[in-house]
Amino acid sequence: MTKTKVILAYIANDRARKASFKKRSKGLIKKADELCTLCDVKACAIIVNPYDNEPEVWPSNLRAQQVISGFKRLPDHVQSRNKEDNQSICQERISKKEGKLRKQYMDNQQKELTKIMYMCLVSGAFQNLSLASSKSLVFLLNQNIKDVGRRIELLQNAMFPRQDNVE
Amino acid sequence: MTKTKVILAYIANDRARKASFKKRSKGLIKKADELCTLCDVKACAIIVNPYDNEPEVWPSNLRAQQVISGFKRLPDHVQSRNKEDNQSICQERISKKEGKLRKQYMDNQQKELTKIMYMCLVSGAFQNLSLASSKSLVFLLNQNIKDVGRRIELLQNAMFPRQDNVE
DNA sequence: TGTTCTATTATTAGGCC
DNA sequence: TGGCCTAATAATAGAAC
């Protein structure tokens, strides 16, 4: 969305909710239409809403009925494949996502920590950190100190190759 | 809609069409989900596609059947309200849109012409214009010339009020 | 063939009338 | 209330792997 990042939760304000519904249902149907045109698929959408007495049906009630007929003709086990209580299929999907989630989480931790480190270095304000953050920060700082140390060594070797210090 | 402006027509390239389908059907379902969450409406979507043996059904086949049941329970005249052959209703909608379309068209014409005028003035290349464009351009230029004339007069009157020219 | 990246277009929240 | 506007976020085409 826009102007502000959308929080995905029921919009309590009646006026805002209706405005959002109008815009978004229009947008949704446009997207469905584009999908059908671009990819030559058959689709229908039905939206039951409190603003109209009748559900919004796209692209036409006739087409919806055709698509539904095709759908109803499927064997029962296919029709119920997505039922909310079908645990094994849900679990499979969840597992598949968990891998990605874990990776994202690690990335985020690293980024967050690096951000905190720079904020602290700039402001000098270390006192508000949690114990866990402090520990992680110390680890990160030590890593960086080691890196810097290695870099100093490298540069010294480049500038004064194989030369012993005086005294 | 991106990297290039999308042309709304069947994507001939198999690979691109499939990629587009995957992205867009995912996007469509996300939008449907958001609509339901934000506005508390009940909706379902069914997409019949050549890549899977079964149609893609959202949010679940169970929910789809519930929404369809509600839809099927409507009286016949409502169910067929959107049928492609229902000319009077289509015509009404078309008329409603035509007003807006006409206004937009006029706006566009004006903008396009103004753009062409400036391009021509900058480049000096008038030779590639169509007859119609040329005529419109002449009209626009004459308008502008008149405007400039009026402005010159205005400024002269401001600088030399009620004064006759020498000789 | 699917996944990831990112430049660009498309959608839309909130404000205004 | 509904339509218009604009700033800002979201979706995604095309490329690379």
From TrEMBL, chains A, B:
Domain of life from the UniProt record: Eukaryota
GO cellular component: nucleus
Matches recorded under Gene3D superfamilies: Transcription factor, MADS-box (3.40.1810.10)
Domain MADS-box: 1-49
GO biological processes: positive regulation of transcription by RNA polymerase II
SUPFAM superfamilies registered for this protein in UniProt: SRF-like (SSF55455)
Keyword Amino-acid biosynthesis among UniProt keywords: no
Subcellular location: Nucleus
Keyword Secreted: no
InterPro entries recorded: SRF-like_MADS-box, TF_MADSbox, TF_MADSbox_sf
Key words, A-Z: DNA-binding, Nucleus, Transcription, Transcription regulation
GO molecular function: DNA-binding transcription factor activity, RNA polymerase II-specific; protein dimerization activity; RNA polymerase II cis-regulatory region sequence-specific DNA binding
Protein's name in the database: MADS-box domain-containing protein
